[in-house]
């Protein structure tokens, strides 16, 4: 492993990223990490690619990583991805939006078996929307394992559903060792939602693979200006605003075109606008995009528009900037933290403000004052790299592994003191039940009877070396 | 080996060289933390700056209520409670044959005509000009309504014969409660639906009318329901907007009449009803204002943005 790394044939999916002196060194101690989330490939999205890329870079750094998720139709059992990344697709019932149902107990036998046979030392759960992630945290604490949680999304405080979800998050995170958020805004949000000590919350941003998002240097110069939008077409992404913007700007600028990638329930709005103002030749709706198609769509345009109403980090604007596009976006959530001011035009979430921002970008484009796509790409690619993310996450693991997992009595005390009388007591009861269940499981199948799995990654990896050279990207597109 | 990993303090990250960032100049001031992600900063990942939660805002949408303003607003609820009460009382009198349908019809017609005149007089005809409805339109729709109700009243009479009277009562009570719940008191809430509210009231009146002795009774009852549940609230709204003083007086008189009507049937009922009215009018506003003190609403940059513009012009 060390050898291949030194040669520079990186196993992380971005081969040309900037090397720091630290990355060349193997870490002091290796961890056996189990990533748990309901969201993983073949499902597509930010969380999924985050888990995959992070795991790859951690494997590159010599750690053992396995991923646990739920079965996706015929994709069940154990699968191996690039570089011996082992994925368990568990037969658990999916309830809503790809999230499994939770009873806090039923997944204990399965997860315990996996944690024991893989000799997991750190359980790292992802996404607060994933019930399985919370279940795994809960069981890991019962089993006395170290726990880390990454929160990928923002949540409000105003309505009943968020009050309930935030309460559950409080319960889930009150005895978790460390929490990772993807932006400072997200950290503030999580600290408030789960009533946490901000010292145990780290901010580690997402990253993008800059080799996947390169500008098109052969592009011909034409008079046509194309605004690209790539997002799911749902309310939270501000599709209603987009409809208004298309109408306003298409009237004003006859050479303007819109290219919209993505699918969702709000597509109908865009189709309505297109129909009503006869814009079929100027507004193209591409429908759902595969991950590998995104770059080709992005480079067709000059300006990228993001109309999200809430966003923890927003990978889309980094991807667009990496392709050399001028980004125009709403100023919501963590977006102002993501890119420096000269690459981004921040607007208020209103049609008028966004139109002003877009017009500014159009004028700059016409005047030729926009930075050259290649310059943008070369700057942006240094901002976020998965190797850096992995390195910082590793530091969290190092810190966590030196901490002690709360013993049973302290855990119960923490729950009751931290989560309020009623909720705390209810969940304390669950903790006791799950503990008794664990005692029962240990009695029926003692730990020493569980076979230890052959490591596919990590220091004792049985995986042949030559496989490390495969590009993970190819593997991913194949799967979809 | 990484200097980070060799650092003796395990509790906090002490890395000064995250990625490619240039080390801070030791002579100048210590580097200031910035809320940005794209530049590696010489701070640990779990660093908590003093600006942490600076943008947190509390209770920014809290409204300061004045007690008497809330009492004034509660008049709308009082009116609706009284409408339901008077309706029930009138139905009881009809059911006991203590009130003849002719009399109710006559009084109802007279009051409706008076209300109709008032309706235009209150805003000096400006509302009528705005919606562009002529008197001929009004006459036409009322004639159509009366003709249909009269024609169908024998059907109404026998409509629910196969249903037990208890079921009818239970259903009417449920529908009248539903009417009160869904009524548009001016709140901007998801449960508010004036169509649903009026439909439930009419349904209740049809149910109750079907238990009256003759078909003329049924006709009168349904007409009265329309008057009290559909026409009266729209007049109320106008009174409220243009002559608040008169509106309060009318509410007070209406409430007195309803309680008196109820008193002639049941003393306990009247007592309970007046307690209800008083608590709605005076106690609930007090509670609302007191509870404002406990409001703890947090807002910040993580909140989902709300689209404030009216986007409907693009879509319909």
TrEMBL record, chain A:
It is found in: Endoplasmic reticulum membrane. Residues 10-20 have a biased composition (Polar residues). Its EC number is 2.4.1.198. Residues 70-159 form the PIGA GPI anchor biosynthesis domain. GO terms for molecular function: phosphatidylinositol N-acetylglucosaminyltransferase activity. One of its GO terms (cellular component) is glycosylphosphatidylinositol-N-acetylglucosaminyltransferase (GPI-GnT) complex. Pathway: Glycolipid biosynthesis; glycosylphosphatidylinositol-anchor biosynthesis. The chain crosses the membrane at residues 421-441. It holds the Pfam family Glycos_transf_1. Keywords: Endoplasmic reticulum, Glycosyltransferase, GPI-anchor biosynthesis, Lipid metabolism, Membrane, Phosphoprotein, Transferase, Transmembrane, Transmembrane helix. Its main location: endoplasmic reticulum. It is a single-pass membrane protein. It comes from the Eukaryota. One of its GO terms (biological process) is GPI anchor biosynthetic process. Residues 1-21 are annotated as: Disordered. Residues 219-363 form the Glycosyl transferase family domain. Catalytic subunit of the glycosylphosphatidylinositol-N-acetylglucosaminyltransferase (GPI-GnT) complex that catalyzes the transfer of N-acetylglucosamine from UDP-N-acetylglucosamine to phosphatidylinositol and participates in the first step of GPI biosynthesis. Belongs to the glycosyltransferase group 1 family. Glycosyltransferase 4 subfamily. This is Phosphatidylinositol N-acetylglucosaminyltransferase subunit A.
UniProtKB/TrEMBL annotation, chain B:
One of its GO terms (biological process) is GPI anchor biosynthetic process. Its main location: membrane. InterPro entries: Plno_GlcNAc_GPI2 (IPR009450). It is a multi-pass membrane protein. Keywords: GPI-anchor biosynthesis, Membrane, Transmembrane, Transmembrane helix. It is found in: Membrane. Pfam families: GPI2. Pathway: Glycolipid biosynthesis; glycosylphosphatidylinositol-anchor biosynthesis. One of its GO terms (cellular component) is glycosylphosphatidylinositol-N-acetylglucosaminyltransferase (GPI-GnT) complex. PANTHER family: PHOSPHATIDYLINOSITOL GLYCAN, CLASS C (PTHR12982), PHOSPHATIDYLINOSITOL N-ACETYLGLUCOSAMINYLTRANSFERASE SUBUNIT C (PTHR12982:SF0). This is Phosphatidylinositol N-acetylglucosaminyltransferase subunit C. It comes from Engystomops pustulosus (Tungara frog). The lineage of its organism: Eukaryota, Metazoa, Chordata, Craniata, Vertebrata.
């Amino acid at each position: 492993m060390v050898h291949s790394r030194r040669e520079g044939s990186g196993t992380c999916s971005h081969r040309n990223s900037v090397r720091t002196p630290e990355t060349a060194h193997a870490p002091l101690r290796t961890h056996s990490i189990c990533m748990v989330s309901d969201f993983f490939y073949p499902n597509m999205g930010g969380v999924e690619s985050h888990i995959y890329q992070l795991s790859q870079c951690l494997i590159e750094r010599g750690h053992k990583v396995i991923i646990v998720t739920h079965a996706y139709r015929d994709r069940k059992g154990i699968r191996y991805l690039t570089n011996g990344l082992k994925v368990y697709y568990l037969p658990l019932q999916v309830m809503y939006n790809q999230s499994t149902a939770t009873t806090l107990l039923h997944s204990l036998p399965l997860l315990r078996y996996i944690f024991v046979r893989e000799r997991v030392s750190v359980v790292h759960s992802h996404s607060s929307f994933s019930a399985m992630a919370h279940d795994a945290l809960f069981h890991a604490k019962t089993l006395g394992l170290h726990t880390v949680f990454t929160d990928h999304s923002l949540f409000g405080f105003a309505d009943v559903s968020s009050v309930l979800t935030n309460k559950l998050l409080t319960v889930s995170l009150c005895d978790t060792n460390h929490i990772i958020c993807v932006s400072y805004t997200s950290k503030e949000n999580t600290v408030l939602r789960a009533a946490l000590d901000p010292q145990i919350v780290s901010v580690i941003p997402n990253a993008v693979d800059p080799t996947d998002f390169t500008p098109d240097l052969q592009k011909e110069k034409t008079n046509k200006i194309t605004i690209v939008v790539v997002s799911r077409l749902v309310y939270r992404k501000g599709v209603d605003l987009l409809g208004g913007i298309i109408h306003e700007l298409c009237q004003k600028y006859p050479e303007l075109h819109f290219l919209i990638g993505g699918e969702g329930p709000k597509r109908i709005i865009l189709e309505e606008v297109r129909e009503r103002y006869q814009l079929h030749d100027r507004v193209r709706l591409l429908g759902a995009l595969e991950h590998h198609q995104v770059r080709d769509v992005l480079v067709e345009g000059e300006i990228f528009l993001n109309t999200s109403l809430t966003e923890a980090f927003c990978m889309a604007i980094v991807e667009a900037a990496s392709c050399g596009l001028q980004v125009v976006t709403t100023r919501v959530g963590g977006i102002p933290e993501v890119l420096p001011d000269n690459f981004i035009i921040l607007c208020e979430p209103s049609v008028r403000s966004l139109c002003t921002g877009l017009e500014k970008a159009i004028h700059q484009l016409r005047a030729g004052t926009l930075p050259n796509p290649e310059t943008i790409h070369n700057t942006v690619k240094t901002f976020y790299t998965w190797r850096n993310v992995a390195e910082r996450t590793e530091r969290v693991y190092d810190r966590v592994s030196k901490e002690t997992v709360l013993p049973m009595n302290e855990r119960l005390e923490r729950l009751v003191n931290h989560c309020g009388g009623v909720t705390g007591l209810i969940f304390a009861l669950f903790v006791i039940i799950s503990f008794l269940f664990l005692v029962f499981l240990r009695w029926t199948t003692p730990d020493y009877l569980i076979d230890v799995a052959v490591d596919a990654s990590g220091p004792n990896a049985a995986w042949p070396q030559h496989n490390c050279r495969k590009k993970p990207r190819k593997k991913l597109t194949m799967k979809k | 080996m990484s200097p980070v990993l060799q650092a003796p303090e395990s509790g906090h990250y002490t890395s000064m060289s995250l990625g490619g960032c240039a080390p801070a100049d030791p002579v100048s001031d210590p580097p200031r933390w910035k809320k940005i992600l794209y530049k590696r900063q010489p701070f640990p990942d779990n660093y908590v700056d003093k600006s942490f939660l600076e943008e947190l805002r509390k209770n920014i949408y809290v409204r300061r209520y004045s007690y008497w303003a809330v009492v004034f607003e509660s008049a709308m609820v009082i009116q609706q409670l009284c409408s339901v009460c008077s309706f029930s009382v009138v139905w009881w009198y009809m059911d006991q044959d203590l009130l003849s349908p002719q009399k109710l019809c006559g009084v109802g017609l007279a009051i409706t005509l008076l209300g109709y005149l008032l309706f235009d007089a209150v805003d000096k005809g400006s509302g009528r000009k705005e919606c562009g409805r002529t008197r001929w339109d009004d006459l036409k729709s009322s004639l159509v309504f009366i003709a249909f109700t009269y024609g169908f009243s024998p059907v109404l009479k026998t409509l629910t014969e196969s249903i037990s009277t208890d079921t009818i009562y239970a259903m009417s009570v449920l529908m009248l409660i539903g009417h009160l719940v869904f009524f548009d008191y001016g709140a901007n809430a998801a449960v508010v639906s004036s169509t649903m509210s009026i439909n439930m009231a009419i349904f209740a009146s049809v149910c109750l009318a079907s238990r009256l002795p003759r078909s003329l009774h049924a006709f009168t009852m349904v007409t009265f329901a329309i008057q009290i549940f559909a026409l009266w609230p729209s007049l109320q709204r106008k009174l409220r907007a243009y002559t608040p003083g008169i509106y309060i007086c009318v509410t007070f008189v209406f409430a007195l009449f309803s309680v008196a009507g109820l008193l002639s049937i049941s003393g306990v009922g009247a007592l309970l009803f007046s307690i209800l009215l008083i608590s709605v009018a005076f106690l609930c506003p007090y509670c609302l204002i007191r509870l404002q003190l406990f409001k703890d609403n947090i807002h910040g940059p993580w909140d989902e943005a709300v689209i404030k513009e009216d986007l409907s012009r693009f879509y319909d």
